[in-house]
Amino acid sequence: MTTVIDGVDAFEGFVGQHLGYSEWQPITQERVNLFADATDDHQWIHVDPVRAKDGPFGVAIGHGYLTLSLVPVLLNKVIRVDNMKFGINYGANKVRFPSPVPVGSELRMGVTVASAEEVEGGVQVTYDMVLEVKDAPKPACVAQVVYRYYR
């Protein structure tokens, strides 16, 4: 279910609220390999499933930054901001990867509005994001990301 934010001034009313979860996203070997090609990070724990079976995780895992790169896509599945000119990804305050994302698993993201502050022409919104692997005991990624939305 998508939360609709009606204009940048409406964010103030959402501070502290959990906005929901994205749909589960499959983490396939193909997705991991494409990310490896895009970033030139071909470490065997990501791209060699045979060798990874004997590695520390027992399976190939997605890159931490692959997980983080899904944040904008997954955020757009959780919220929609109407009545604005444009929005930008402004950066991250904190990112941690507490547990791996095994190839073949599914990942989703929960979103909470941590703060909303007025900036020239719009609002700066800080989100607390938790990305979790289905049936895993710990989150795969915990991040605080910052977006700006303009009137």
Characteristic key phrases:
two-stranded parallel sheet; 151 residues; six-stranded antiparallel sheet; alpha+beta; 8 strands
Topology of helices and strands:
Blueprint: E1 3-6, E2 18-21, E3 25-26, H1 29-39, H2 44-47, H3 49-52, H4 64-69, H5 71-78, E4 79-82, E5 86-96, E6 106-119, E7 122-133, E8 141-150
Parallel strand pairs: 1-4
Antiparallel strand pairs: 2-6, 3-6, 5-8, 6-7, 7-8
What can you see in these coordinates?
- With 151 residues, the protein is of the alpha+beta class.
- It contains five helices and eight strands; from the N terminus they run βββαααααβββββ.
- The strands form two sheets. Strands 2, 3, 5, 6, 7 and 8 form a six-stranded antiparallel β-sheet that branches.
- A hairpin with a 7-residue loop joins β7 and β8.
- The longest helix is centred in the first third of the chain and has 11 residues.
Terminal Cα span: 25 Å
Which oligomeric state applies?
A: single chain
Overall SS class: alpha+beta
Q: How many helical stretches?
A: 5
Brief account:
Helices cover about 20% and strands about 40% of the residues. It is of the alpha+beta class and about 150 residues long.
